[in-house]
Amino acid sequence: QVQLVESGGGLVQAGGSLRLSCTASASIFSSYNMGWYRQAPGKQRDLVATITTGGSTNYVDSVKGRFTISRDDAKNTVYLQMNSLKPEDTSVYYCNAQRSSGPYTYKYWGQGTQVTVSS
Fold this sequence. Notes:
Elements: E1 4-7, E2 10-13, E3 18-24, E4 33-39, E5 46-51, E6 57-59, E7 67-72, E8 77-82, E9 91-101, E10 104-109, E11 113-118
Parallel strand pairs: 2-11
Antiparallel strand pairs: 1-3, 3-8, 4-5, 4-9, 5-6, 7-8, 9-10, 9-11
């Protein structure tokens, strides 16, 4: 079982920055692909960014050039640096850890952290 704890959310004005952190309980963090998702009220949870165990990253088009995902395996932590924030970035942000082993996929979620961007 992997427990994920997010932090770093808050209220920020448009154009500002926040850095989200997600720390995992597992000592095998380095074997998990990590991701950030977000969910606005009444909407589905959508992918924001992912980073593989090898450090390859992927972003949804709406955040490219503004958000950066990174990981520190020594600290069991994944980060999401968010710059040039827009009101439409307002959501609850969730950390995700995922790995596959044979036919099985193991997926874990954090409790979420609220990000609110005021105009």
